[in-house]
Amino acid sequence: MPDYAIVNLLEIEDSVGDRVPGLEGRFGRKHLGSRDLGISHWRYAPGMRTQGGHSHREQEEAYVVVAGSGRARLDDEIRDLKQWDVLRVAPAVVRGFEAGPDGLELIAVGGPKPEGGDGVRSDAPWPDET
């Protein structure tokens, strides 16, 4: 195997499928053959909001807004996002996303993935729902 890989994220199968209407997610880590780097593509339909959110036990993440706009839920805070914003999120922070009127398209980058993963699902409502 060479010491490099080229992968088109839009050619990777959508891992979300029909489970969450209005959301597409493509994971590039295994396609890149990377031990230490995870990268994924997320596309949210206009107005789509994730329920709850998630955090991690170890993995820090960064999200790059490549198209559209929206909002990020960061624990009990909501922040606006626009194209080319980069959002870094520490592992323990619960994060979720809501697309603006033109949708939201993100590239997510994460570090080494612990054996068995480390994602922690949160069912807590968004701060503006309480």
Key phrases:
single chain; 130 residues; mainly beta; six-stranded antiparallel β-sheet; two-stranded antiparallel sheet; 1 helix; 8 strands; 3% helix
Structural overview:
The protein has one helix at residues 29-32; strands spanning 23-27, 38-44, 53-56, 61-74, 77-81, 86-89, 95-110, 119-122. Strand 4 (61-74) and strand 5 form a beta hairpin. By secondary structure, the chain is mainly β. Strands 1, 2, 4, 5, 6 and 7 form a 6-stranded antiparallel sheet that branches. The chain has a two-stranded antiparallel ribbon with strand order 3-8. Helix content is 3%, strand content 45%. The chain has 1 helix and 8 strands, in the order βαβββββββ.
- Structural Rg: 15 Å
Strand content: over 45%
Average the pLDDT over all residues and give the rounded result: 95
Helix segment count? 1
Q: How does the major sheet shape up?
A: 6 strands, antiparallel
Order of helices and strands: EHEEEEEEE
| Low-confidence region ranges | none
Compute the number of strand runs.
8
> Based on helices, strands and strand pairing, what is the structural class?
mainly beta
Shape: globular
